[in-house]
Input
Amino acid sequence: MTTEVIQAEYDGHTFAFDAEGWFDATVAADRYGKRPNDFLELDSTIDYIAALDARQIAITGKAGIWKVTRRGRYGGTWLHPKLAVRYAQWLDLNFAIWCDEQIDQILRGAPTSPQAIRAEYLSGYHELHAVVDAKAAESSKPWAVHVNVNKAINKAVGIEPGQRGSLPPGKLALVAAANQIACATFAVASDHHDGYDNAKAALGQFGTLLAPAAQAPRIEPSTHPPPRKRRATKGEAPTAPTVEASIETSSAPTEQAS
Output
């Protein structure tokens, strides 16, 4: 989940979501006189979360995170969007329909809106590192695998560490695409070594495509002195002077990134 909070009003009350569709369950429970724990302790909820985990393990090899406790402003219990709508149904059916619409709008958004791009980036980031977690389970330094993958992505798109939070939408969309490339290569790898090598190679090719295109050859006048004009003899048409030219090829600057 993210620190960006999106507020929306329903029936005269304000509810909170984040840019990934997570939902503030504590505020909603207060509105309907209930407690999030009462919902989470239901047998049907426990079974539903188990089913979500089974699906997540089949995809990434690791159970999902479906609820978190947030501190400070907007503190309380926050639920993953896959669990939030079911929770909202427990509170009130009409409210659940509205929540479903809000979450769908947040996750889908306009394809080129900054909010949609950031949501896509965050979703891809978490998916990538869930896959990396699974592949690096036997590594003595799993954290290093995550760090190296992030470095390879940053290098491919030409950004420095720590810049992702302030990137313009267009650049962030490139990072999102790089996340997908790395995730796809890791998912089919035999282990984290194979995954990193393949991801690094694929990201290198991606970075090459993003580099400035080579400049076309340009024609410059020759530095040789012009030939002397020959006087035409009687009855001969004058000839035009010949201009020599040299072709100079300039290579495009290499984009440096770390």
Summary: Residues 155 and 171 are 13 Å apart (CA to CA). Residues 114-135 form the longest helix (22 residues). The beta strands are 5-10, 13-18, 23-24, 67-70, 76-79, 218-221, 245-248. The radius of gyration is 29 Å.
